UniProtKB/TrEMBL annotation, chains A, B:
This is DHH family phosphoesterase. GO terms for molecular function: nucleic acid binding. Signal peptide: none annotated. Residues 240-324 form the DHHA1 domain. It comes from Paludifilum halophilum. PANTHER family: BIFUNCTIONAL OLIGORIBONUCLEASE AND PAP PHOSPHATASE NRNA (PTHR47618:SF1).
């Protein structure tokens, strides 16, 4: 029943009235998770608060250039030196499970400030600042820093910019709003290195990733009408290239980006012998619904699911469903 | 000796005091050339002026979604129905040669308004509005539309946005300034479809292009220290994939984007039997100077040259030169 302004005041009080915080985000963190974790750290630092930043997963190589990133600890490192925390600030995490085992670092009576932009956020916090109109959690934090009268210095601005940049797919997704661009402009005025960050966060690829792209492209097939494009990565593709899951980032887009394709799919065999399918769509098909029909989930334009049948069966079943969806026969 | 404000006034008078204009840009047009051509068209239309837009080269497929693009004529189409023009507005063209044969559509006494952001612009116009601090010619046109009190409607804004977007490499190059982002924000407020334009102008690939990427990646090699990455595209790669020169766009970046690489090179055989080398660099090497030493040219981070020796010799000579440049022994 609380109004938005009340929630913001609660969020302000949460940090102003307390002294020590655990800052957490989701496992397998992306640029917004890492950028927002660090940004909250810089905000707390500016306010003279004590805090510990943690993530169950290591920070991906491409975000290790960010200022303060060496202070994001593993749960083991935190556990070895701290008592359970009584206050946590969770950023970009749609539910408590997404925080992984960092959850165990909290006391049973811990209060949580939950700041997120996912529409599916289940409001697991004591205070919940959820703005699903925001392109990124970093966008919400821009406003919060202003409310708390924290100056956007270059370090803070670089972390916020990274969140905006990555969650809008480099200002390419439909969440690229006038507000996002106005915030980006203001962040750049703080001395952010736009091209350096874009280079590291979006452009740089490992040799293993290049090898994986080659193999994925080798497998690219199209439906007769050209509206479905799909690729396969088998277990041996990972073994022989030395690539890991983290390096799959963006590969599915090659299938979607081809002229005439409406739905792009990447099938990949996991170590457990299941098949994961990632979907990207242009306009016609709600792949979120499609993935749901296979027990998965996601958004209308990007989704995925996991299937335990053989590759051939999975491919046939998925392609049939996509074809039906393209014919307007449901998703 | 004229001050900047005088030049702007001359530009304003150029359109306000005359009635009919030929709008031209450079051949093999990119997003800024097409976007700026169309933007000038919309500005002239708003001012109630008559104009004809022309380009020697066809509009690349990926920009054919832009409003008004069907009104960009070929020189032949213009010649068939118009007398020589007495006034031309040239956009994004660093010198008159870049306009190709559209030059022939001008009367011998024609006045030219030359609007451009290339620092190498040779001021071939009667009035020259050259701002090398602008990220794109479209950035200059944003200001000009304001000066002329032309409202940014959705069509004009979409063309200007396309110029900004493409000339900053999707807001990834070092010319991505706070001003660019502020203009982008204002353009999006006019109803521009940011994701639709990014999708068409930056993401979409032809099947031929995908096939070319595969072949280029198959040839990717690295120097022993990993600081040089290079790829080859032979004549048969073009013949067998059906790809053309236009579809090379961006492929060289795969070599540069690999972790540890400082200079990425794409060698390709042309139909005439020469070898063209494209260079991209991260930080260490001024590839503009490097290309110059082989009779080519370009910028510090992106350049190219053409060589008439055999592939093997070219590769050896270029790699030796790049190695020397990396060792600080000149470019």
């Amino acid at each position: 029943m609380s109004k938005a302004s009340d929630v913001w005041e609660q969020a302000d009080r949460f940090v102003l009235d307390n002294d020590e915080f655990l800052v957490v985000s989701h496992l397998h963190p992306d640029g917004d998770a890492i950028g927002s974790t660090l940004a909250v750290g810089f905000i707390l630092k500016a306010l003279g608060k004590r805090y510990v930043m943690v993530n169950e997963s290591p920070v991906p190589q491409k975000f290790r250039f960010l200022p303060g990133v060496e202070d994001i600890l593993s749960p083991e490192e935190v556990q070895a030196r701290e008592k359970p925390f009584r206050r946590a600030i969770a950023v970009d995490a749609a539910d408590a499970d997404r925080m992984g085992i960092t959850w165990n670092l909290l006391g049973s009576d811990a209060d949580i400030l939950n700041i997120d932009h996912h529409p599916t956020n289940d409001r697991f916090g004591t205070v919940n600042v959820i703005d699903s109109d925001a392109a990124a959690t970093a966008e919400i934090l821009c406003l919060w820093a202003d409310r708390l009268q924290v100056t956007w210095d270059r370090d803070l601005a670089s972390c916020l910019y990274t969140g905006l940049l990555t969650d809008t797919g480099g200002f390419r997704y439909s969440n690229t709003t006038p507000k996002v661009m106005a915030l980006a402009s203001r962040l750049l005025r703080c001395g952010v290195d736009a091209s350096g960050i874009a280079d590291r966060a979006l452009e740089t690829m490992t040799r293993e990733q290049i090898a994986l792209v080659r193999r994925a492209l080798d497998s690219l097939s199209f439906s007769e009408d050209g509206r479905i494009g799909w690729m396969w990565l088998k277990r041996e593709d990972f073994q022989e290239t030395g690539a890991d899951e983290e390096e799959l980032d963006g590969i599915v887009n090659y299938a979607r980006n081809v002229v005439g394709v409406d739905v792009g799919i990447l099938f990949r065999e996991t170590e457990e012998g299941t098949v994961k399918a990632s979907f990207r769509s242009r306009e016609m098909v709600d792949v979120g619904k499609l993935a749901q029909s296979f027990g998965g989930g996601g958004h209308a334009r990007a989704a995925g699911c996991s299937l335990s049948e053989s590759g051939e069966k999975v491919e046939r079943a998925v392609l049939e469903q996509v074809t039906r969806a393209l014919q307007g026969g449901g998703s």
